What does this fold into?
Amino acid sequence: MIHIQSFTFNAFSENTYILFDETREAVIIDPGCYDKRERDALTGFVEQNQLKPVKLLITHAHVDHVLGNAFVKRHYGIELYLHESDLPVLKSVKVLAPHYGMAAYEEAEVDQFLVAGEIVTFGHSKLEVRFVPGHAPGHVAFISHADRFVMGGDVLFRGSVGRTDFPLSDFDTLVTSIRTQLYTLPDDYTVYPGHMGTTTIGQEKRSNPFVRPANG
It folds into this structure.
């Protein structure tokens, strides 16, 4: 069984997640930790629970989701995984971060490119990678079918969807991603988003005002 620990980091109130199972192996998803207090919160949880981070997974490379990339890679000696289509977004962060008052941002190189349909493993656990562009060109979601949840980044929120007023974003593409890659999951799957609280696939299919099911 996968256990999920969430943190809310940086000025954008971004959700960073640590996933781990009974083996104590763990993956860190979207490390938004920027300052020492936030980094200490993340590393303190890992140490307190005797976890062994083995992979750094990024849903997409907008600035608020990658502020801790270099720190996490260096601190744990692990590889960074990102979809290749989001590489231009990641490269732009070094220019954008100072404009948000985050001049101490450090770049980190991508080690492995994620591919739609591949299975990411850690301990006894598996996460399916689904390609869900729209909010960002290389956005992915990580899905546990065994534990029935989605690590969705900034694609689908409770009663909302990811913004598409950024460069390389597109609303129609986002809608298609949600309908074909997320709304096709069972209704009871929990969605852990990149901001705000959790929701379920069923709740959003019934009431999300931005994206109705294709046959709805």
The first helix runs from residue 36 to 48. Helices lie at 36-48, 63-66, 69-76, 87-96, 171-182, 201-207.
